[in-house]
């Protein structure tokens, strides 16, 4: 097992920059999810760590050793491909044993280790089957088996659940996390699915246009998004933005939106007059008829335990997640109250979060 | 495989359209089989039967054509033939009935061996080189790859006769005229362009992930190519090999120009079989019939791969 560290990694294909100046460290035994939309550079980052692509500049360290220009075969890492890449001309047993064969492990030991791995993944009964007839979930397990059989320094996974149907994906998310808890292998997991990332990862790196927008625990990323992009990408429905134009001084504790004063965590920086956005998660909106912030109900989406109510305000549509017991009429006028302690503030021009006590407290605590 | 099913039509064809389709296939098969049947039948006719008009459909079969193909004969007086005693073989008897005796073996068998060596040798070389080149073009960023591929293909754009004289002169200088090596090199050069183009298509279809997985599993690229790419390319390789072999086996123009003696292949030899009083058609037909056998066997052995190979691109995606 090992620590993965990448420093100022950059990858350029012709005139397209896939990854720009990325740096992060995955601690030994940690599970990192690289999260972002397709084309954001997450797979390219993963392939550079694997040695399948060479970076244009920057460095990659495995356990402190610089492996930037080492061959993939010399890095001792395992990679689970999106389409599994099981060798179609070999059966399950040979597929799993293939990495051991290259290391010159004796036949008896290969047999023992393949069978041990198969037991761990509960695929002992299909060891002698051909891989072409396997169901999606079993293919997935065989691909995992081929990865863990040689106990590599780390695991890299490229959207391994992308081709499974939704129902089975949940089962596999659970199994993958279980597996991680049992073998504690350093893992980098690429996905565009925030639920997978949230459910499995210790740390998440949110990527966009080749840049890491934010690197942190799932909790940090959800409750203290570093940019409007992250705030919008994570959460469903995503964070609401109330846009307004104002200047701010250090120490401010409230802002005026549409003539309504809204309290917020103490601002820690001065801002010249510019367009700002107040960010509020749907679950941090409550209905309060005495509130000055008003709007009319646009629609409600019933989800069983709660409901998502869309409210048309002077600043656009706000979506609130509230208890399911109240019924709303469309067009009904309602008052909205925002949970002041949880509000984020963004500078619309840069998209970055404005420094406030919400962020600094987190950093120190 | 489920992907294979999707290529089939959703609507089951009606029995009428099936019957019409079957009739067309049978008609086409009959048309293409007629020349082959003609040759096959002619090889068992006697020389007078072979040139009779109208052609004889029913005739007394004889092995005379095959006997004449493999032997050279000299005419003798009946008295001399009588003095020889009992004939030692069927061919001996047939020959004596024509007032001749067998003088020795003909050149057919050595020419046939030349064909085997040259065709299989050049096919092996063309497919080996073609596979490596196709892999390179498929997987790496080769500078000017499109131009190079066009250049490779352009070697097939002219008829062989257009380059025959320069090659003849070059071969004479290099001492490659009328040598098996020379013919193998020439057919390899012609076939390698076909092999590169066909195989590039097949290798493009094999996802890169397989090699990448193998490289991550601790193998070098060459090992990954050998252990993972090649086994999956067998279909394409078999199909390419058949096409190359058919070309090299049947090639006539270069063979007639560049070989005359020890390296002569069967195609230029067969038409030169002359009997008494002109072309010995049964012997020519017998030579052609035997000449068809290797390619037939090879194609039947690989027909599964060939069929899968031809429909490869169509069915996969």
| SSE order of chain A | EEEHEEEHHHEHEHEEHHEEEEEEEEEEH
How many discrete structural domains of chain A?
2
- Strand numbers in spatial order across the main sheet of chain B: 1-2
Name the quaternary structure.
heterodimer
CATH superfamily of one domain in chain B, please?
MetI-like
Q: What is the CA–CA distance across the termini of chain B? A: 12 Å
Tally of helical runs of chain B: 17
Structural class of chain B: mainly alpha
Report strand order across the widest sheet of chain A: 6-7-8-3-9-10
Specify the overall morphology of chain B. Answer: globular
Helix percent of chain A reads 25-40%
Give me some keywords for this one.
heterodimer; A: 365 residues; alpha+beta; Rossmann fold; OB fold (Dihydrolipoamide Acetyltransferase, E2P); 2 domains; six-stranded mixed sheet; elongated; B: 317 residues; mainly alpha; MetI-like fold; 17 helices; 4 strands; disordered N terminus
Short description:
The complex is a heterodimer of chains A (365) and B (317). With 365 residues, chain A is an alpha+beta fold.
Structural summary, described in words:
The complex is a heterodimer of chains A (365) and B (317). Helices cover 25% and strands 35% of the residues of chain A. Chain A has nine helices and 20 strands. The longest helix of chain A is centred in the middle third of the chain and has 18 residues, at 166-183. Chain A is elongated. Chain B has a domain at 109-272: MetI-like (MetI-like fold, Orthogonal Bundle). A two-stranded antiparallel sheet of chain B has the order 1-2. Chain B has a two-stranded antiparallel sheet with strand order 3-4. In chain B, strand 3 and strand 4 form a beta hairpin. Chain B is globular. Chain B is mainly α. The interface between A and B is medium-sized, with 24 and 17 residues.
